[in-house]
Design brief:
GO cellular component, one term: heterotrimeric G-protein complex
Strand content: 15-25%
CATH topology of the largest domain: Rossmann fold
Keywords: GTP-binding, Magnesium, Metal-binding, Nucleotide-binding, Transducer
Number of strands: 12
Family: Belongs to the G-alpha family.
CATH superfamily of the largest domain: P-loop containing nucleotide triphosphate hydrolases
InterPro entries: Gprotein_alpha_su, GproteinA_insert, P-loop_NTPase
Number of helices: 15
Shape: globular
Structural class: alpha/beta
GO molecular function, one term: G-protein beta/gamma-subunit complex binding
Helix content: 25-40%
Distance between the termini: 27 Å
């Protein structure tokens, strides 16, 4: 017997009857004999007696019931059934009571599962996926604890050191010479001695001397010249946000703000999830690391997904990442994201009841870049206008074309231009996305 969950199409009940051995019993009124006891021949009875003492065959069966959600076994029930052939079950009343209890529990499980929506966040490195995840905690939960803020404080210190290391490396690549002043020379000597190769420092020893050296370098003319080229170098998006506020952050009484948390760069490793109420259901949002080494873990999260939010940094159209097959070669960052999206959107795990929504993220940075670097940096054949709307629409169309016609016939692919650091923007866009998820996942089963 199989019951399909009306919401997930994944809740399955299996019932297995394990037959026992047939045994003989002297009469229906005297119970049944063990199959190791062989009844002796009984004396002949009258016609009336034989009606009440005739032998009957009894079987003892075991009923196993399993409830599965995807690959997860959520309930197991074992029952004994003792039946007399040609008659009624010897434990009919007891079995009816147990069956009623089981059915009630199964219904509770079904209601719980069908009122929980699973939303998967996917995307490549540095696309802003984890920033959106943080926004969900701020908007739909109670934000962050005091301990979280302490941890973010040290993460922000690390971001600042990483940003300055990136700026110094970029200065060398751009052949921009440092200021010929004693203050800058001392600051460079101090910083490079400790963090010369600190592309991602994990531990930062904070002290006044470090902050002073970073502040001196940031105010120098050669670093200002590097920042003018920030749209073509490898640099954290939040670099200037934190470096502009270095004096506030370097204070001993520095308290991390909510915007500091949003701006902080937190590479996701492993699988992180949160559960929060939304309208009449619970949303289970899962954030999976976007680094290449993490992408092999994505498949483990593909079961029972109601919506996929695929995040891409549209601002990466003029940036490059090492090629998967040959790290010595470079691949355009946006085209790399397109290949990821193609694999995800056409994956067989995501059927017609899984909404696919594309976030063209970092639209604020894209708006700055597009006036300086044409879209032909990524798409050589692009012949449209150079305005933000025209270029963003073209990128959206290129992503949509990657989805098979069969899938697009079953469900449309929705997309939004987003700025993950803008809480109001994310709140509004996410609300619109959930309308799509509800429509695709719930209206088809008559839940809403």
């Amino acid at each position: 017997m199989i019951h399909c969950c009306p919401f997930y199409d994944c809740l399955v009940e299996h019932r297995i009857i394990v037959p026992g051995r047939a045994v003989a019993s002297a009469s229906t009124s005297s119970g049944f004999q063990s199959n190791q006891v062989h009844p002796q021949p009984a004396p002949k009875a009258t016609h009336q007696e034989s009606a009440t003492t005739s032998s009957a065959t009894t079987t003892s069966n075991i009923s196993l019931r399993f409830l599965f959600c995807g690959s997860l076994q959520v309930r197991t029930e074992v029952q004994n059934q003792v039946n007399v052939c040609g008659g009624t079950s010897l434990t009919a009343a007891e079995m009816a009571r147990k069956n009623s209890l089981i059915e009630k529990q199964l219904e509770k499980d079904r209601l719980h599962l069908r009122r929980t929506l699973k939303i998967l966040l996917l995307g490549g490195p540095e696309c802003g996926k984890s920033t959106i995840f943080k926004q969900m905690r701020i908007i739909h939960l109670n934000g962050f604890s005091d301990l979280d803020y302490v941890n973010f404080r040290y993460l922000i210190y690390s971001n600042i050191v990483q940003s300055m290391a990136q700026l110094l490396n970029a200065a060398k690549k751009l052949n921009i010479k440092p200021d010929n002043t004693l203050a800058v020379k001392k600051a460079m000597m101090f910083f490079e001695r400790r963090y010369n190769n600190a592309s991602r420092p994990t531990e930062v020893e904070m002290n006044p001397e470090l902050f002073q050296s970073i502040n001196s370098l940031y105010k120098s003319e050669f670093i200002k010249a590097v920042i003018e080229n920030k749209n073509e170098i490898e640099l954290l998006d939040s670099a200037t946000y934190f470096l502009d506020d270095i004096e506030r952050i370097s204070g001993i009484d520095y308290k991390v703000t909510e915007m500091d948390v949003i701006k902080a760069r937190v590479p996701t490793t492993g699988i992180t999830e949160i559960l929060f109420p939304f309208r009449q259901v619970q949303l289970r949002m899962v954030d999976v690391g976007g680094q290449r080494s993490e992408q092999r873990k994505w498949i483990h999260c593909f079961d029972n997904v109601n919506g996929v939010l695929f995040i891409t940094a549209i601002s990466g159209y003029n940036m490059f990442v090492p090629d998967d097959d040959d790290p010595r070669k470079l691949t355009n960052r946006l085209r790399y994201s397109m290949e990821l999206f193609k694999r995800i959107a056409n994956h067989p795990c995501f059927g017609k009841k899984t909404a696919i929504i594309l976030f063209l993220n970092k639209i604020d940075i894209f708006r700055e870049k597009i006036a300086q670097y044409p879209l032909t940096k990524c798409f050589k054949n692009y012949k449209g206008g150079q305005g933000v709307e025209a270029c963003a629409q073209y990128v959206q169309d290129r992503f949509t074309r990657l989805v098979s016609a069969e899938i697009q016939h079953e469900k449309p692919i929705y997309s939004h231009c987003t700025n993950a650091t803008d809480t109001r923007n994310i709140d509004r866009v996410f609300d619109s996305c959930m309308d799509v998820v509800f429509k695709i996942s719930m209206e088809k089963v008559g839940f809403i």
